[in-house]
């Protein structure tokens, strides 16, 4: 009689045997791809076992013909398994879109292998508009490439949302372009940026650079990536020099503060709408006399 452990061992053996056979079949079909690389990928992403060697071959052949190296192709497949059933003409169309951004072919390959879901995107007109918008703020195509690499959500975020972040980072915090594009600040929501900046400012650990200061002169402020791209614990202990608990308390208080500000703004707007026009005119006249 088999014990449970024995049955589990047999199932695991059969599963490993099947995976090994599939890895060998895929590697043989692709040609030039080591079985060990495929085996490792199947173990890391079990979902890939449901796709046939023919589907692997079709996608691999298309990406290879577009100049992508095997390592990057496997990275794309592992990060976005369903690309194996995406029509090859659609993948080719997406690659054409990203090449039209003029980031440079090497950079384009790095970008799509780091974020394979970008290969679902084929709206060239919208992409061109988004690239032009970012280019107008961040000076070079290379900087726009860095922004997409660090925050691929910039492709789909509403322009209004991105503009608010740009204003906060560049005008309120007064960071230089290069520091912004090297960070992942745009991957975070505006509330996250505001909360961390305000915390440091109230602790006296951050002071915006003077508008007249030389951009090359060190400010003594923490680097932007240290402020925005760290865990709450690391930010609290290593950047703000407080405990995690102290920062968590501030987060809750700041959230309430922002909610109250939003409520006050809403109330002011509605009071202005309800106020008779004559009262508004008299009020404005009074203000002018009082200046």
Automatic annotation (TrEMBL):
Keywords: Transit peptide
Residue numbers spanned by region Disordered: 260-291
Compositional bias of kind Acidic residues: 260-279
Molecular function in Gene Ontology: nucleic acid binding
Residue ranges, compositional bias (Basic and acidic residues): 280-291
Keyword Nucleotidyltransferase in record: no
One Pfam family cited in the UniProt record for this chain: mTERF
Family: Belongs to the mTERF family.
Protein name: Uncharacterized protein
């Amino acid at each position: 009689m088999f014990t449970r452990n024995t049955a589990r061992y047999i199932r695991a053996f059969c599963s490993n045997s099947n995976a090994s056979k599939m890895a060998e079949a895929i590697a043989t079909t692709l040609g030039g791809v080591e079985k060990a690389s495929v085996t490792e990928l199947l173990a890391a992403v079990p979902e890939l076992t449901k796709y046939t060697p023919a589907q692997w071959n079709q996608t691999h052949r298309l990406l290879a013909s577009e100049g992508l190296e095997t390592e990057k192709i496997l990275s794309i497949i592992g990060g976005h398994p369903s690309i194996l059933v995406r029509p090859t003409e659609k993948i080719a169309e997406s690659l054409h879109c990203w090449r039209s951004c003029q980031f440079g072919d090497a950079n384009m390959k790095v970008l799509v292998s780091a974020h394979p879901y970008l290969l679902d995107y084929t709206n060239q007109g919208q992409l061109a508009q988004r690239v032009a918008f970012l280019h107008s703020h961040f000076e070079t195509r290379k900087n726009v490439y860095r922004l997409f690499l660090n925050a691929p959500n910039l492709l789909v975020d509403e322009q209004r949302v991105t503009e608010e972040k740009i204003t906060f980072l560049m005008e309120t915090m007064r960071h230089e372009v290069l520091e912004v594009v090297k960070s992942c600040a745009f991957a975070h929501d505006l509330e996250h940026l505001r909360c961390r900046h305000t915390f440091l400012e109230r602790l006296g650990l951050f002071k915006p650079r003077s508008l007249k200061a030389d951009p090359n002169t060190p400010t003594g402020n923490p680097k932007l990536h240290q402020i925005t791209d760290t865990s709450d614990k690391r930010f609290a202990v290593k950047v703000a020099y407080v405990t995690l608990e102290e920062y968590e308390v501030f987060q809750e208080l700041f959230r309430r503060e922002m909610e109250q500000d939003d409520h006050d703004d809403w109330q002011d707007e509605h009071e202005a709408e309800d106020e008779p026009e004559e009262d508004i005119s008299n009020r404005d006249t009074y203000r002018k006399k009082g200046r």
